[in-house]
Amino acid sequence: MNVRRLLSGGCAGVLLFSGIGVSNAAGTAGGSGGVSAPQLKTVTYSGAGAAGEAAVNGTAQGGAPASGEAVPRLAADAGGSAGTAETQALATAVQVDRFGQWVSATFPEKVTSESQLLEDVAADAAYYGALQAPDWDPYGGLKGSREQYGLNATGFYSIQEAAGRKVMVTPEGNLFFSLGVNGIAPTDTYTVVTGREGIYEWIPPYESEYKSAFLNTKDNFSYYLANRIRKTGQPYTSRSLYTEGIQRIRKWGFNTAAGWTPVNLSREFSVPHVPFLPLSDMAWAKVNGLKFFDIFVDGAEAKLDAALGPLLTEHKNNPYIIGYFFGNESYYHKLAPDLPKMKGSEVAAKRRLVQMLQEKYGTIEAFNAAWNGTYASFTALIDAPLYIDSQQAQYDVDDFVKLYLDTFFGTVSRVFRKYDPNHLLIGDRWLTLPVNNVKVRGFLAEAAGRHLDVISINHYSKNLDTVMLNHIHQASGGKPIMLTEIGYGSSEQGLGAPTQMLVADQNERMLRYRNYVEGAASLGYIVGVHWFAYLDQAATGRWAEGTTGERYNFGLLNVADRPYKPFLEGVMASNKDIYPVLLGQRVPFKHEFGDVPRQPGTNKMEIPYTPAPIPIDGEVNGFPGDAAAVTLGPGQLVNGTGGEGMQGEYTFAWDENRLYVTAVIKDPTPMKNNNPNINVWRGDGVELFFGPQDLTTPGDPLFLDRQLIASAGLNNGQPFWYWYFTNRQKPVEMAVKLLPDGSGYVLEAALTWDSINLQGQADTRFLFDFGFDDSEDGNTRKRQWVWNGTSANSTNRGHWGQATLVKRAAPAIRITGVEEGGDYTDEVLPVVEVEDATGVRSRTVTLDGAPWTDGTPVTAPGSHELTVEAVNTVGITAKKTVTFAVYGSTALELSPAAGQYSDEVQLEAKLSGSSGGPVPGAELSFEVNGSAAGTAVTDAQGRAVLPYRISTGPESGQLSVKAAYTPAAGLYLRPAASEGALTVRPEDAALQYTGETYVKERRPAVLSAQVVQADDGSAGALSGLPVRFTVSEVRPDGTLRELAGVTDSVYATGADGRAEAAAQLPPGLYEVRAELLAGPLYTAPAPVRSTLAVAAPVAGHSVSVNGTVPGGTFLGKPAGTLVLNSMVSYDLAGSLTGALRVSGEPSGAELYVKSFDWLVIAGDRAYVQGTAVSGRQTYTVRLLLKELTTVSLYVWKGRDTSAEPVHKQLNAQLSGAVLTLP
């Protein structure tokens, strides 16, 4: 029967083991087994809690936990052994005063007289009278929230959504966050007094006014109840304590009577509560040695139906029942490692496992192949221990765990809902250990998500584990979670708490509570948090666990019924203002403690080879010289506090058969371990972790991983150990010996390679970690040190470091600063180091055959050879040679250059060495615009000059220039390069028109222009230059009309600089414009123009002009009128005949043209040009005519018609006539 349910109280439980004597003498065990079955003398307390029993890793085999406990050591707790004379003497000394307080503890609230208790009556009335309970609805909910958030009043507690969050809702439809207190009863205040009466100042007679403070007999007594009797003068009754407790917790802002509280009183007084379904009372479903409900017992569902039906039916309409728990802290983490080894004739779940395996494999041969077994039949499996010796076996057992959870949760849910459709099924209050295991909690959450309304977890932790909670919430498909046990305690009043709940004082206790509760409420899916517990536990340990029971500061009140007021101030601050946090309207309280758990490191180590086996004798001897010790100190403390001066020094070695470890542990209370079983982690010991596969895979330990804890305590004079993550306990050769001065112990072990699934071969690399545990009484771990990982090493192999097996036979020579085949610039400094485990006898270093002194840089350019020879103290020689080269650096400086296209310029560069001096005789190569320009050799000043004629020009006006030095082979100089620019200016050039000016055949006219460069003595290329011709028609009025499409846009010059184009033109007069377009080689001169007359001579065609045009001046003389007389025609030979007279009237100059250049007749237009001589001056006269009266007149001196005319008269109206024939 569950102790908690029997007494309606209790808290986190533990496994209790009978005391086993611990000797300080050395002990050895050569190949003996680990913990044997007869050693497992246990008293099982039903409800392992925060401190928990052995932790489990993510595999079916389980691992030792990281949690520890911190409790006062009671001198009389001899652990079942006779104890020393000192211990016996202490057992007769008074340690607990008459009020149940530690004599050794000093604190302001300590009661020293009965009168103080009587004075507390008035003080209590004033204190509690000043407190005001929150104005919540009758069920503890937020008034008015139903209407505000659209919630439903179902008449019972339900799960709904508000503000996007999973919330619990009262029967009236208001928001409800369950703030509960466990154990509103004196259960944990009882302590065993019989047999150790001498440590108590006072124990009243059983038959006295204090009889109600005893638990049924005179053996167990409650000092809390005795103090209460002193205060009230009344005997204890559960009713009076309950009613008083409910009134108090309501004023402190709690709204729920949580677990381990009298259910009948909660019903009677209409207090919201969560009863337990009585599954723990069903003996038929219990399994000896494994706390879980065997749902596979024949007729299990019918038996549940018969037991639960009447109870559920009776209370199904009670609105003050929030819901039901159906268990507490089952050992789900032990199903996989322990159940397969049980006998099916005794355990129905084992038979169901065998059935599942037979259904899967069909034949025993197939099963044996998958499990590495040698079983004769499936029938033989029923009572045979099944060992998980293959990965497939692990998978199969995992499948069975999932089958079990689905069947168990599903069956309970089905029966429950058959009789009670109104209330919530709130789970079975999961233990910390299984939910710390990622794989196990995933299985739990998935099954719970299918069958439960709310998941309940007893989550003890200094800091809320949101990673774990988020995982469970998500894996369950979004189920809400209730945290059904939390707690913190300090040692201020002589009590304590497990390590993960131990705080410095009541102020920290308050801050931790606020962090936890408000942090949980803010997550959006937590629907309640229940504190454990109402009262402190007894100073000498709660009665149910004998003389070694928990003695923790878990209460809201101490043994004198005095409230922890500073702590409760914070409790009230959070409790009474919890709904704004729940709804996301207020940021949750958060105090930063800076106690983020230590993160794993990245440590790696090499384990050296030993040519001879290490003696396992409790002495540090036999290790090779290169087996350096590794020390664990304050920086590696991962669990607990204190332990000043404690440290562990580890030395490792290996050979082909074993891995050797020697640990020297400094410990003021050495070799204390009373746990020759799976709980070996509770006492002094050395921890080792091995991961032979998948070195980069974190998370749950894998099938081949192993954890070993070797106890520092002895059992009947012999060492003991325990292997985790496996069903098999392999032998370990080990020895433990007290240090001569008593300051600690030496623990040695030799592990066969098959025990850790490795092979003894050089260069083998594996995950590895090690540490040690410290207990001050042999029963409770107080501290833990780990080399690389954390307190979660047993559940996450990603926290472990790495080790490599190395085999050294000669001194290790290390040359740094230079590498084989390396080359270096100007200088290099080699660094030579020689190491050897046995020591170095001699060491010589030579450079190029000559002695070399450490710290001397090598600067001479050339090839070098550095040789190191070393001899260790056992005469083994090592030699190492490194060949390398030193090159002198060089620098190249290129001077800028500039010039015109086609000119010759000087490209100049200077080469310097590392010291800055010139480098003569070096050949430099030059490039211009990416093309080789030539080479030149440096002179005595390091300068090289290369003449270079500019043969191209860039658009930007600059050409890139590069100079480079490439050393000849064997010179040991570095190459150098430099870049610069050659500024190029275009060459001056002129353009001449060289094309036709008169065409009288019916053919294309030849247009031509020639580029002529300046005569500067350096000719450049003239080909490929762009020339453009533009042809325009000259009209009789002197205007031009450009003709499109007569020529192409641009023509390239030939080698002589000439560009030509052909133009097919009709008869007429044209102007040809030629221009050289701008380019990188030449400047663009002014365009040139020329007249082109195109005629089609026909005999008899003529033009005549007779008349006058208005004048002004003519050839510098006044002329009011110009008289034009002309008759020009083609004769039969195609020549021009006739005359043209232009004279100024009345007395102006006169020109008489008898020689004609051309006559062009084009329809009603005519053009004529000829020459006249006047006063030894030749003039060129041109007429532009349009029938009948339009005349334009040009006169030039000389024959150059491209010059400005001396007379120009355009578009003049002729008084007379212009006639053309035809």
TrEMBL record:
What does the entry give for GO biological process?
carbohydrate catabolic process
Q: Domain named Carbohydrate-binding: which ranges?
A: 616-807
InterPro entries reported in the protein's UniProt record: Carb-bd_dom_fam9, GH, Ig-like_fold
Q: Name one Pfam family in it.
A: CBM9_1
Protein name, per record: Agarase
Q: Note the Gene3D superfamilies from the entry.
A: 2.60.40.1190, Glycosidases, Immunoglobulins
Q: Where is the signal peptide?
A: 1-25
| Key words, A-Z | Signal
What Gene Ontology terms describe what this protein does at the molecular function level?
carbohydrate binding; hydrolase activity, hydrolyzing O-glycosyl compounds
Signal: is it a keyword of this entry?
Answer: yes
